[in-house]
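Tokenise the fold.
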Amino acid sequence: MPTQITHRIRVTVISNYEAEISLPNKDKYVHSYHVTIENQGFHKVQLLRRHWIITDANNVVREVKGEGVIGLQPILNPEEIHQYQSWSPVPTPIGKMKGSYLMKNLEDDSLFEVEVPEFSLVADFKLN
């Protein structure tokens, strides 16, 4: 389970290959990922934006940027956790993702970035 702590925000990611909705014969390998964001700091924070860097086995890089996560801009009080699940298709059976969240300290309105650790996207049949 890749985990990283940046500015007292802990991010953990678990990925899973979704064989039932993947289409290998069309170069579409779908992976879900479950993210846990934990505020280990002393201030209320809000997740404003996400930035993903998705790399496939051909070393082709795709970037995804947008507001919040799955349509939400969650607010986390100290010691609170926010969890969500999303997915990403890649054109190869192996890939990887990493990224960052733009967060706002709601006590002083300062902005800061939180790193999302790199995690693997591997089709089950490639694990042997």
Observations:
- The chain has a mean pLDDT of 96.
- The chain has one domain: 3-126.
- The CA atoms of residues 8 and 41 lie 5 Å apart.
- The beta strands are 3-6, 9-17, 29-39, 45-56, 61-67, 75-76, 81-90, 94-105, 111-122.
